[in-house]
Amino acid sequence: MSKAIKTIFFDVGNTLLFPNRTHILKPIGNRDVPLEHWHAIERDTKPKFDDIVEHGGPADHGFWYMFYERLLKDLEINDEEIHASLVDATRVSANWCDMRPGTCEALQRIGKRYQMGIISNADGKVGDVLQRCGIAACVRSITDSGVIGWEKPHPAIFEAALRTMNVKPADSLYVGDVYSVDYLGATRAGMQAILFDVSGAYRRKNLPRVESLEELEKRLL
User: Fold this and answer.
1) According to the model, what pLDDT value does residue 58 have?
2) Is residue 1 included in any domain, yes or no?
């Protein structure tokens, strides 16, 4: 990290919580989608999506449109209704309820050294999901795009979150999984940033990245 950090803000999706694939993928019936296949599509889709966003294209939900387009192609399913239902299901915060083992404990350890908050592109209900998953108490503020009306990578959502904690951008770190939305959004708002890259989409990029909260703890030390 380039400067001492006082506050850490986390993304939610693909960072603290992950999609309940069993529920979201119901429209494709009993077709098996192994986690490695899911991650392989992420690795292929994220660079293409980043390029679109960096050239002024739509952010966040546009990724899932591209993601499921590729998934259905791999499964040889040509059905626009199924594609739309998959994208819609992924936009529902309640469907992001899978949590990696040790998440709560890692957040509690990090919280002993840093104040923490959430910045998420969501449907206004991400706080309820964090509460049900038992990690809402680990953070001091939750900034949900569905509540404030601005989505990452727009600087307004980062600025709103910083105000809730009364902290300076340069003293804050943002942890999220998409380069064009999370990393660029945060750094352009003056914050430090690191990618939470579980799928390994950015392994070959010269970017600060971790693949787990435990690895983040080590980087912070």
Assistant:
1) 67
2) no
